[in-house]
Design a protein that fits this description.
The protein contains twelve helices and no strands. By secondary structure, the protein is mainly α.
């Protein structure tokens, strides 16, 4: 899980670096195509059929929609806002997933965990700072991206078990292509030629992204969920460190306080969930 979070942060860094030269839509299309090719190759090696009727099931279509939303808006966030800020807001995803599971799947969530969910959402508000001079409308991009990823994770729980991890990877990266096409058409910017440097950035992003996804799936499928999930928050450390070291970003007090509220509430939610399972 720690390796996956480090790789995701590296992926974000190279994508942000590539968008300084190339249009965002073009970067997303190339990144999505590369990741889809890698996972399609892995799926064929595993003997998986690339298309089955289950792929067009309702839960997979919902997952595809939220994946496009998450990829598009988070991609815009890391390109247009500080990497550290976008990474911090993304850490609220597990909190939103727990709230969504309670509302959609009717999972029992006691008042203590609901309180922690509200505290975590307060942390997001502290970071965004709406209504103040420090508020940037662009920070909403990371917020929408986070909601998209939370919706994807919830839809994944209802996805057919017959669909392998490799196939989820294929269609996950295909959604990045769709997100890139949507933004490219909306922006209307002509694609640029690839330099050797930017090509290496994109190749590194693709390799890091596929490694991160594979590591995440391995951790979630072979380890105890309550044991490995807390290590998701290491992405916050990696993202902040790379933002400061590579892009010269600065960590504000609101980001420190907000990220602290998000992490503490998320850890408490996981701990309470584990206690509830023990009682059963």
């Amino acid at each position: 899980m720690v390796m996956a979070m480090a790789a995701f942060s590296v992926e974000d860094t190279f994508i942000k670096a590539a968008t300084e030269t190339l249009p965002i839509g073009q970067v997303l299309i190339i990144f999505g195509a590369g990741g889809a090719i890698v996972f399609a190759w892995l799926a064929r090696l595993n003997g998986d059929v690339l298309y089955t009727p289950e792929v067009a099931s309702r839960s997979m279509l919902v997952r595809f929609f939220f994946e496009i939303t998450g990829r598009l808006f988070y991609g815009l966030a890391i390109a247009l806002t500080p990497l550290s800020a976008a990474t911090v807001i993304l850490q609220a995803t597990p909190i939103v997933v727990v709230a969504g599971a309670a509302l959609i799947f009717k999972e029992h969530v006691g008042w203590r965990r609901w309180g922690a969910i509200l505290i975590g959402l307060v942390g997001v508000v502290v970071i965004i700072q709406p209504g103040t001079d420090s508020f940037s409308p662009l920070s909403i991009l990371a917020l929408i991206g986070m909601i998209g990823f939370a919706g994807r994770d919830l839809a994944s729980r209802a996805a057919p078990a017959s669909i392998s991890t490799h196939l989820l990877g294929v269609y996950g990266f295909l959604s990045v292509i769709v997100a890139g096409v949507i933004f490219a058409l909306w922006e209307g910017t002509e694609f640029a030629s690839l330099s050797v440097e930017v090509s290496l950035f994109l190749l590194a992003a693709i390799l890091a992204g596929t490694l991160a996804y594979a590591g995440l799936m391995k951790a979630m499928r072979t380890g105890e969920v309550s044991a490995v999930t807390p290590f998701r928050y290491t992405r916050l450390l990696f993202g902040i460190a790379l933002g400061i070291a590579v892009f010269g970003e600065q960590l504000s007090l609101s980001m420190v306080v907000g990220s602290g509220l998000i992490v503490l509430s998320g850890m408490f939610i996981l701990w309470r969930g584990k206690q509830a399972v023990k009682k059963l």
